[in-house]
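Backbone shapes recur. Consider a single case.
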Amino acid sequence: MSLMNSVFKNEGKLLLRNKFLAIPFLLNLLYWGYSIVAYEVQPTHYEERAAAFYQSFLWILLLNLLIVGLVAVYMASKDRESDFEALVATYQVKNSEWILGKWLITQLYGLCITVLTIVVQGLWFISATMTLENWFQHIFYVFIQMEGAFFLLISIGFLFAILIKTILAYLVIPACLVLSLLLPFDYTGKAAVWDNPILHLFTPFDYMFVESPYEGIWGIHHVFKDSILHQCAIILLGIVVISVALLLFRHHRRSQREKKLLPILITIFIIPMVVLSGIRFMQYDRALKQYISTGKQYQESFLGEDDESYYEDYKDDQPYDFAMEKTNLSVELQADDQIIVQSTLTVKNNGNESVDDVFLTLYHGLKIKECTSEMAVACSREGDFITLHFDEEIQPGEKFDVHLHYQGNVLQYRDDGYVKQAFIDKQQIYLPKEAGWYPLIGKRPLVIARERSDLYAQFELRNARLVEDFPTEFSVKITRGNQEVPLALTIPEIRKNTFQGISQYGLSLLGGNFTEEKVGNIRVVAHTEVLNGMKEVLKRYQKSWSFMEDWLGVPMAPSVIYILSDNYYYLTHRGMNHDFYMLRSENIDDSEIAYELLNEVIQDFSNNNGDFHIVYDAMVWMILNNLNEQVRFTEWYKSNYWVEDEGIALANLLQSYEEKGPEPFKDVLKYLFDDWKGLENKQDFDMEAALKQYEGAAK
């Protein structure tokens, strides 16, 4: 032990004298200094400090892993390369004393980089909006991710420096990083057919997430437990690897004690490593299997090639004569993603015919315990669809009540099992409407999936677009264990854990670290740090919504807005309507707002011809001009598009109306839009003919 201590001290002195080994610390300080200053100097913040930190953290971590791994190879091989080891071999020094002294000082070098990172993180997060418990959780998450990765990479560096007695040993570290992290680098939720997502577990730090481990109002709760499990297994593997290196180093210098102790030590650490790795493997394997089983259940063959046509062909746009007039829910949220619900539904026949079968939709993972009505009814179920068969036909205009008692597990996955689609935990709750956690009227596809032979899962899966034909009056009472986590629904909270209101969108339940405020008449649910920044964005949205409502006579402004991370925005934004909106934590420019809102109004772009594209562009210009004054439409059009003579001619047709002023231009565009909207075949739209009709009507 004394000799190992001497080696440790000597190597420490050599490290302190080596000026080049101070470069990584300077790089880290400069990198974090730039990241923090670049964030803090912004007058308005659109994302949380933690989000900005983790976006930077992943890239500097890769660089630190490369540097520390190369230092490990250097530390293990430098004496051999300088011929000093030949002299040391004559000393009475054991393998473990010689190697572990160097290994420990290298681990200390990696630990110093880790400490530097968490000091920067801890100081920066003091000004972030989070509890002390969450602050410690973030610190520990970064510590275990970095130290576990350094621990393993340093051990691998020592092992291969011993096995490969040439400069090629230095190539092992970048090769390991490339194989585990960059091949494949497809963390987009769509693993290619040759890329088994389970292989992504074989990384020096836990990388089983899409984009960033940080999820806005849910922090790192999604990944925290799994990451600790993963990194504990990595640390145990690092001990096994360095023990193997000790066995292979200088056979003739191994003591009898080392010969007996090292195999026992390897066995002792391999067993818990395998157990922890097995638990982590089974966790993700369950998620992946559930994702695959979900896709297979909903999978349909699709012959089209265009992604948008795939979505449009399978969207939920079939009207249903029955309406859910009232929905009263008594919801009990339990741990482990379990839910118990007592529901009373008031259904009305808005059709012109009497029927004896009424259909409901409820996620198939929720088991119905009771289904009753004052009228004689028989309930049957197939997958997500519930059939209510009445002995007496339901007449037009007639209402009836149905009582459903159901319970079950709501945990659902998307994106190859990386993203939880619906979940209930102590610190985080998310039950989107698309999860089918409460009864929907009619036969509704909760998920649409199409065959994709180029993907590992053999299908592409996305949430369905659930559009209601009629508004519903909701009353929801929620009971739960942890009362500290705030809740939000797409209807207002009238008292603690009781929500009531009318919505045509439906219900999406949210629980996490957020603040709810009103911006105008709109309820905004967002992380406290992004609320002020998003208010600035929402002012521009509100200005556009009001303008379009006055101009086109269509409802636009939502009653509630959720601001969530990218993953959940992409899962939900196609199903939004004027009652509910979801935004990401980012600054959105005027062009994005204009195109997004106009696309919401138009929706169906199939079979549109060039004439309507000019009208579409003119409407975009009109929305932009309302936000900030633009150049003339024809100039804007020519500067933004690569146009042919025909396109310029069509744009010039509108120029005379623009020259008359904004109001005449608005009127003619409204007329053209209504003319296009009334056509059954959109290819028949003729702008020149429509303008002649407009002039005739004006005269």
Observations:
- The CA atoms of residues 215 and 565 lie 6 Å apart.
- The chain is about 50% helix and 20% strand.
- The first helix runs from residue 2 to 17.
- The mean pLDDT is 86.
